[in-house]
User: Fold this.
Amino acid sequence: MTFIITLIAWILERFFHWHHLKRWEWFTHYEKWLSVHIKTWQPYLRLLINVLPPLMVVGFINVLLSSFLYGIFKFIFGVFVLLYCLGPENLWVEVYQKIEQNHKGEKKAVDHVEYFHEKFVRSIFIKANDRIFAVMFWFVLLGPIGAVLYRLIDIFSVREEYGLMPIAVQSKQVLDWIPIRIFTFFFALGGHFTDVIAIWKKHFTQGLEMNEFLLTECGMAALDRESPNQDISSLGKDALGLLDRAFVMGLVVLAICVLIL
Assistant:
């Protein structure tokens, strides 16, 4: 069931645009209400109190639906939760929009074109992990609770207003450590294996602060960059092609694990 849910959610995220349905305003209102009552607590306790109730609700519903109609409702709930936690913006749509804007001259001129292009592509890899791969990894490991946990921590990691950003960033780094190392290994399988695996082995055991460095360096090494002056369109499309191959290989590995176990 986990494999089928993950496959369906990835296909829906890859080929359809659902961002208008993925709204987390309810969590923002919940944050504001709760922060008034626990603002003097330690940051780690405040973060725990913020994420624990939604996780308990999701876990309770997931268990409750297990006994209905042979788990069909649980299956539907799993697809809904995973799809809701992906994104919220569609990565592929956003990248093609950026490419189109660049072609229309809407991007400001930059002195270091190569640096600008590489920065853009590196951000694609980071977003691919934050929005999709890490969410799917924790869903496979912990079910709907895992997907919701990662998304909530990710939300806090980019918000400064409640004073929880530092502890949330650290928590996100912990949650990212394993997924990024698996994701980058798929980069090696889907790109220039020798170049990627050399970087992968060198930085695999390093600490949490090296997560994004490992992710972006392996991603850039996996790409087929014929010349340093490739335009943003070519690099962006190559990055998306690499991600597609990595996700497909991840789904294949998950299917094999399901069959074996």
